[in-house]
């Protein structure tokens, strides 16, 4: 899709009276330098502690013998994935509202996002406790990190992993 | 964050914010479609045809809006990344 859509109209510039800034040569240079390295980084996209933590969860559950424990753990993992999915949606909704700049809508979307965010932290903690009960290594929980920001970072990274698994 | 610089440029340069906003809004359509893909795999064990279709449509829209922005940046001789990735835009709102 490299063609400009014929129905696209230039946005109304008058409605956004922001200061004029000239093309930033520094930025242009840095983008140019980035061109070659950009896709080389794709190979390393799913490395690091977030990915390792996710893989620790998945591989350990896979190694549990069939039975009640495995059933429960799989269910909790599915809940966690659903939580990640809900969180993605809530952030999209908030971003959309921010663009439209409707204060009430932004506040409402932000409340939903916070709820989804808390949901992910709960799902991680529930799964971690279930790992402990099943005698599995739950050190992945501390590897992810215990702050809300850690949960956000992990969810964003893992959503990409989940999508890549389905491609 | 690489795209943060482009976002700042777009928001500070007169007339570029609307172009940037269309890319953001397009991201807002694509992410829920991708989320449904995750839901499908949990609920049905495979991605449903309507989800695939929704993703395809949203991806085309996203690519198109990105191209419009990149063309405008080129026209103004403003540097930009070779390609805008949906999750890079998304991460600006985390």
> Poorly predicted ranges of chain B (pLDDT <50, ≥5 residues)?
none
Q: Can you summarize the main beta sheet of chain A?
A: none
Helices of chain A, by number, come to 6
The helix/strand class of chain A is: mainly alpha
Calculate the terminal CA-CA distance of chain B, rounded to whole Å: 12 Å
Question: How many individual domains of chain B?
Answer: 1
Largest interface, C-beta within 8 A: A-B, 53 and 49 residues
Whole-number radius of gyration of chain A?
21 Å
SS elements, strand count of chain A: 0
- Residues in β-strands, percent of chain B: under 5%
What is the share of helical residues of chain A?
A: over 70%
Rounded to the nearest angstrom, the radius of gyration of chain B is 15 Å
Give the integer mean of the pLDDT values of chain A.
Answer: 80
Shape call of chain B: elongated
Number of strands of chain B: 0
Low-pLDDT segments, ≥5 res of chain A: 1-23, 35-43
- What class, by secondary structure content of chain B? mainly alpha
- Largest sheet data of chain B: none
User: Which overall shape of chain A is indicated by the principal axes computed on the Cα atoms?
Assistant: elongated
Encode the helix/strand succession of chain B as letters. HHHH
Describe it.
The complex is a heterodimer of chains A (167) and B (94). Chain A has 167 residues and is mainly α. Chain A has a domain at 68-166. Chain A contains 6 helices and no strands. In chain A, helix 2 packs antiparallel against helix 3 (68-100), helix 3 (68-100) runs antiparallel to helix 4 (103-133) and helix 3 (68-100) packs across helix 6. Chain A starts with 24 loop residues before the first helix and ends with a helix. By secondary structure, chain B is mostly helical. Chain B has one domain (18-91). Chain B has helices spanning 2-12, 17-43, 49-75, 86-91. In chain B, helix 2 runs antiparallel to helix 3 (49-75). In chain B, 41% of the residues are buried. At the A-B interface, helix 1, helix 3 and helix 6 of A face helix 1, helix 2, helix 3 and helix 4 of B.
